[in-house]
Amino acid sequence: MQVGELDEITARALRGEPATTEQALDILKAGDDETMSVVAAAGRVRRHFFGTGVRLNYLVNLKSGLCSEDCAYCSQSLASTAQIPRYSWVEDGEVRRAVEAGVARGASTVCLVASGRGPSRREVDKVAGIVARIHREHPSLHICTCLGFLDDEKAKTLYEAGSDRYNHNLNTAESHYCEICSTHSYADRVATMQAARRAGISPCTGLIAGMGETDEQLVEVALALRELDAESVPVNLLLPFEGTRLADHRELTPQRCLRILSMVRMIHPDREVRSAAGREYHIRTLQPLVLEVCNSIFLGDYLTSEGQSGRDDREMIADMGFHVEAPEPSTSGQICFGPEPDARSVVAVASALGEDTTGPVLVDAAGVAIRTRGIGTSSLPNV
């Protein structure tokens, strides 16, 4: 990749303009020996729009597993035999404790997730009640919901309860979608995000890399996310859970992952780009470099897999010279963030709260660490 070409891509991004298809492909095709230059360029863009702030998102898995959809990547599908936590709707008291744990340790956004094709009217009302209660108790906290397919009426209910965001990932390119799912279509996913937008909810939608897609298909889905005007773009790296149809897909390398994240940053220069599931599994010792590209990460564990401990997340942020952002009160569904003191202060608070990241670690045959702590279990969360 020529230096002049990378400079041109960076200049476009600094103006808030997305990389072209050809430029995005060039980023993905760069050699391992060029990856640090690509990351540095993406870092210039990230710092231009977001400074050194890092937004911590915290997942609360309200209902796990037993999903009727046949998504090939998903450990929660009924077609999966992955040894994950499986449970129905947790009690509200357990939700409250989970939210409090995330907030106490620096999360500015809590993501309420429930497995399944989509919520019934009764389930939407149930989640809306949880959202409203959290909003009353933590008025500055941003609340993201992720419940599957929505129509306009259900989206409006969530918005009126106080849901700032709705997450529903496109996951892969339309041209690749039939390879990963047969029980719903790519268009169904697009329709849900459009319903959320019409209701006034900020769209949070992203992708999963490493599912056998081509470079062209990665760029295709990244550009499609921009067309949806995604305000938050989570980038997942496939976790090849044993017991899923994609268990043998392990082609990602740390450098490849950093180039994928950089490509997404250059297409979404002024949007929240989040390093999501798979960060620990695939990027390994190069994880701190993620912060140069992404201005958001998940704190602690994911839905069904174990993440880096929350303590290590915060120390990584501090060691890299970044800081944890705290939310400011939102108005009319708009998301705004302000600075927070150095991340080390959050580490100190967590220590004072008696943070416990000990506990058994369950690793499957593919090397994926299964979540055994937090909501839906009898163990303390990994935050």
Question: Tags for this entry?
Answer:
iron, TIM Barrel, alpha/beta, 2 iron, 2 sulfur cluster binding, globular, S-adenosyl-L-methionine, BATS_dom, 38% helix, 383 residues, 14 strands, 13 helices
Give an account of the 3D structure.
This protein has helices at residues 3-14, 21-29, 35-50, 92-104, 121-137, 152-161, 186-199, 215-227, 254-267, 279-283, 290-293, 310-319, 343-352, and strands at residues 53-63, 109-114, 142-146, 165-167, 202-204, 207-209, 232-237, 272-275, 296-298, 323-324, 326-327, 337-338, 362-363, 369-370. It has 383 residues and is α/β, with parallel strands linked by helices. The strands form three sheets. Strands 1, 2, 3, 4, 5, 6, 7, 8, 9 and 10 form a ten-stranded parallel beta sheet that branches. Strands 11-12 form a two-stranded antiparallel sheet. α2 crosses α8 (215-227), α2 (21-29) runs antiparallel to α9 (254-267) and α8 runs parallel beside α9.
